[in-house]
Amino acid sequence: PDTSNLFVRIAEIVREDSLHLIAGGFWTDTDTSACEHNDSVVTYLDMYSDSTSGIESLVGDFIGVFGFDEPDARYEGPSWSACEEDTVWYVLVRNYADSSRNNISDDIKPFGTFLDRWKTNDGDTMFYRETIPLFCGELDYPVFDRYPCQFRDPEDRTFPDQIQFEDIIEATNLLPSDSVDYYAYADQDEVFAVDSSGLLRIYEFVNVTSHTDTLSITCIDSVLLPQPLRDDPVWASSDFRSADVGDRSTGSHRLNGAVVFFDADDPDKNMAVFHDGDSIIFLEDSIHLPDYATEITSVCIGEYNYPEHHPTPAARRGSVISRGELRILVCYQAVDQEVIVD
Q: Helices (H) and strands (E) in the chain — how many of each?
């Protein structure tokens, strides 16, 4: 690859703009010519990765490889009303996912692809419940090609009347779901809000909808925050399904998500909000910081140990929503010391 290649020119524009790059170019086919083409894509991206490593002007990184267009639909084909397990499409994804990881750069580039079977109809034997887990088992990230969140023009977007808030509003992911859509993606989310009295409300909404549907939001739980947390608390929330474990068909499994509140001036005054597999838990004063922590400066909640903390290639092949642990990062000031990060 050199700067005369169209791909290289486009990639440089993207990366110089501080955006990261996920590159593709594969043909979704299994015949000989397609295999030859796809082999050349792997070779080209490997050369591109090597030729651009260390170039300071490319602020954005080359972070992943994009594969095929709906191989799961071809695996289940030939139509929505007739199914068969055509394993050649699964083998295609498995082989090129491995080839991509093994050949493109010295690091492992995450490999993903479009998936079409985002839904399994409950009680319908025509659709394979194993399809999404089967393909996700070979991918580092799936892309479900359904775009449900298409609402009105920006000037018409308002919060539904059900939401009462004054000071804080944020999205999170606290509740498991028993929907069949949930096998493929988070089919519901939550937003939370705190009013001037210190009442925390958590609202649920289903995000499987079209641009013509009404967005329905329901208050599912509330709690009055402790007095120290009612006046301008430091807070953070997570919004993803990491380490989601248990029986998803019952909606009683655990989610690795949380919302936390801290009193900035008294870090021992805090609240953690999470789902324990049965209900939402509001746990007060549960996060303990060193005695010399005098003031909270910032907090965030995120995924731990994906992918850097998995030491082997095989360990990195789990999807983002199936590995890792929740971590709360707290930055605080301490007595007679500089800012400490714990």
A: 5, 17
- Model confidence, pTM: 0.58
Is residue 137 within 8 A of residue 111, CB to CB? The reply is no
C-alpha 70/C-alpha 52 separation (Å) is: 30
Bridge partner list, 331 = 298, 341
CA distance 245 to 237: 19
- What are the Cα distances from residue 168, in Å, to 176, 220, 298, 323? 23, 17, 15, 30
For CA atoms 67, 68, 72, 76, give the dihedral sign.
negative
- Note the pLDDT of residue 168: 74
Could you tell me what percentage of the chain is helix, strand and coil, using 3-state DSSP and rounding each to the nearest 5? 20, 30, 50
Separation CA 248–CA 187 (nearest Å)? 12
pLDDT reported for residue 316? 46
For the beta carbon of residue 53, count every other beta carbon within 10 angstroms: 13
**DSSP H or E stretch at residue 131:** helix 131-136
- Residue ranges in the chain modelled with pLDDT below 70: 79-83, 106, 117-129, 145-167, 179-186, 207-215, 239-254, 303-325, 336-342
